[in-house]
Amino acid sequence: MKPLQAALLLAICIAWGMHMVIIKAVTELVSPLTYVALRMPILALLLAPLLRWYPGQMLRIAIAGACFGGLNYAFMFTGISLTSASIGSVVAESYVVIATIFSVVFLRETVGWKRITGIVMALIGVLIIATAEGDAVGSRNLPLGAFLIVCGTTAEATGALFVKKIEGVKPLSLLAWMAVVGSAVSFVPAALLAEDHFAFVGGGAFWPVMLSLGYSVLVASVFGHTSYYWLLQRVPLSIIAPAGLLITFFAVLFGTLLLGEAFTMRMVLGAALVVLGVIVILVRKTVADRTQAAAAGLTEQEGALP
Q: Most CB atoms within 10 A, among 178, 181, 229, 283?
């Protein structure tokens, strides 16, 4: 990886780690469901020029968009509002575990005992964190929050299955469709479950919410995803994927420095098990991918979606 590419990847991890903290802070001012319902239409409008109709692919795009652009954010943002940015970022690593399980069940991939060990370690870590109710400073309902975040990562893992089957769609065009579908999907839970959608407009919360929306749309989505896709076209996914752990690191760091969140020894133990389990899964996946590529005589494929 070239220095410029490494610096860009670091910037993405910092931006997404900071986003976890911003979500925790802003959902104290506005309902997380309302926030998602406001964010996705703005993103859809910005990316509207990239929309293209893809015959034979639209059903898969719609399902992927519902999972990646609507359900995941509704679950995860609500979960973060009930826990903390630090805990939320650690529990969100369960995506790697769930995606691996789905790859075995639905894609018939083979998983050895080492990756199974990693899955078990990560799941035990999530369980330890989810049951640390008395240790979680700033959490309103830790078990429910952790459960909702896992629901969010499950939605993303489900969306990933459909993304793998989408062909001939450019990444940013796919992101645009996810924003459009996500706008429709996120409107339903916001309309049914959230209250006082625009109560923040008349108070001192207006500008914090607007600035947070700007960060979510411009920094987390436009800059983050555009840069990430750019890197995927130039750097092996096996190198980029483990960097996701840096997002957790920065979320914990910023949560501690900016929100005063604290980690107890019980939560440190749970986080360590999650991170170590994810590392084991990623390392074994990298080795397996390289072995398959060598056996098939394939060159490295670029531009694949994560």
A: 178
Alpha carbon distance 1, 11 (integer Å): 15
On whether residue 283 sits in a domain, the answer given is no
Do 20 and 77 contact (CB within 8 A), yes or no? Answer: no
* CB 123 within 8 Å of CB 97: yes
- Please write the tens of the pLDDT for every residue from 63-120: 999 998 899 999 999 999 999 888 899 899 888 889 888 888 887 878 788 888 988 9
276 located within any domain: no
Please give the C-alpha separations between residue 12 and each of 79, 85, 175, 249, 295, in angstroms, as whole numbers: 23, 17, 17, 13, 33
Tokens (6 digits) for 81:
């509002």
Q: Which of 35, 37, 44, 32 has the alpha carbon at shortest distance from 179? A: 44
* Residues whose CB falls within 8 Å of the CB of residue 211, separated by 6 or more in sequence, listed in order: none
Whether pTM exceeds 0.70: yes
Q: Assign 288 a pLDDT band (cuts: 50, 70, 90).
A: low
> How many angstroms separate the CA atoms of 169 and 20, rounded?
29
Q: Which DSSP letter does residue 68 get?
A: I
Task: Flag whether 236 is in a domain.
Answer: yes
Instruction: Give residues with Cβ within 8 angstroms of 134, minimum separation 6.
Output: none
Q: Is 234 helix (H, G, I), strand (E, B) or coil?
A: coil
pLDDT tens readout for residues 178-205: 999 999 999 999 999 888 888 888 778 8
Closest by Cα among 70, 73, 115 to 96: 115
Name the residue with tokens 């996914």.
Answer: 237
Q: Look up the domain containing 76 and give its range.
A: 3-86+140-263
Contact yes or no for 79/145 (Cβ under 8 A): yes
Q: How many domains does the chain have?
A: 1
Tokens of 138: 């700033």
